[in-house]
Design brief:
With about 325 residues, the chain is of the alpha/beta class. The protein is about 30% helix and about 30% strand. The chain has ten helices and 14 strands.
Length: about 325
């Protein structure tokens, strides 16, 4: 079990994480979500021993990071966002040997494990190619290999799909499914909410440093009565967008010279309210259709800010 007890982290007057309490059992693939600046990466860095908590306790299988850091770290593997998690002038094999060596593990002991990972991650043909010459997706695969080469029971993946094409995202999902086991915990942060909902069996959402949701993925079933529409209009002015955000549970993005409004309602006839509003402003409508309710709709509902607007940065449809 990975256990957080009253974990807090402050940077001066800024409280990045505020009294976080979580118990995560083995076999869990946890989607750790939140808007930018919510405290996700700070929490992961505290969990990996890279940042010291201001207050509180983190324990991995009964071992405290405060009281026995060396033993605690043995259980931890991580691939962090925006970092060189591998050495680009080394090959996949050389990277795995290097990171195993940092853990005090000899090449002889991990030879079979390296062959196994090269097979699972479809890297056999690239085993002797410098990582700097590999695609972004392959580099991410090598980084995960290095993060689990010492067989940690807890793996943190911070934005594992960042910069990947659709095919590579699908491949990443299959790989994570292969490496999870009843004895391992995987914690994923991602703005790709479809990836998270397809893969994870538990969802937590943190907002402004505070845990606001922690549920089994099946909680989405309780929202099945909600109704979601996708409305395509001409490009909307920011003032109109702000009014929609303030009065509706909605998410908007622009593409192909159109604004797409994704709106969640309790009753079907509520759609008339926003249509009448748009009509009153002579907004041109191109299309309207009912769509399936998804995790992103819950996410936008939960993190609605005090000013009525959503913390909506970098959320992928």
């Amino acid at each position: 079990m990975l256990k957080y007890t009253e974990i807090s982290k402050s940077f001066g007057e800024l409280v990045a994480v505020n009294k976080l309490n979580l118990n995560i059992e083995t076999g869990t693939i946890l989607g750790f979500l939140g808007p930018n600046g919510a405290g996700k990466t700070t929490t992961i860095k505290m969990s990996c021993g890279l940042v010291k908590p201001t207050n509180g306790e983190i324990e991995a299988f009964g071992v405290s990071i405060n009281r026995n850091r060396r033993e605690y770290i043995k259980n931890i593997g991580a691939v962090l966002e925006g970092n060189r998690n591998i050495y680009w002038r080394l090959t996949p094999i050389e990277n795995m040997e290097y990171f195993a060596g940092l853990r005090g593990i000899s090449c002889k002991k991990i030879r079979e494990k390296m062959d196994e990972y090269l097979e699972i991650f479809n890297l056999k043909e690239k085993r002797n190619v410098e990582c700097g010459k590999l695609s972004r997706g392959m580099q991410q695969k090598v980084a995960i290999c290095c993060a689990i080469i010492h067989e940690p029971r807890i793996l943190f993946l911070d934005e594992p799909t960042l910069g990947l094409d659709v095919e590579s995202v699908d491949s990443m999902e299959e790989i994570i499914k292969k490496i999870i086991s009843k004895d391992r915990i995987i914690i994923i942060t991602s703005h790709n909410l479809k990836f998270v909902s397809d893969l994870c069996n538990r969802i937590t959402i943190i907002h402004k440093g505070i845990l606001v949701l922690d549920k089994d993925i099946s909680f989405l079933d309780s929202y099945s009565d909600n109704i979601t529409y996708l409305i395509e209009t001409q490009i909307l002015q920011q003032e109109i967008k702000n009014d929609i955000y303030e009065n509706f549970t909605a998410y908007m993005e622009e593409s192909d010279n159109k604004t797409q409004i994704r709106i969640t309602l309790k009753e079907d006839n509520e759609i008339l309210e926003i249509l009448n509003y748009l009509n009153s402003l002579s907004v041109k409508l191109f299309n309207i259709k009912k769509v399936n309710f998804e995790l992103k709709d819950v996410f936008m509902d939960i993190i609605k800010g005090d000013d009525g607007k959503y913390a909506r940065s970098n959320i992928n449809i």
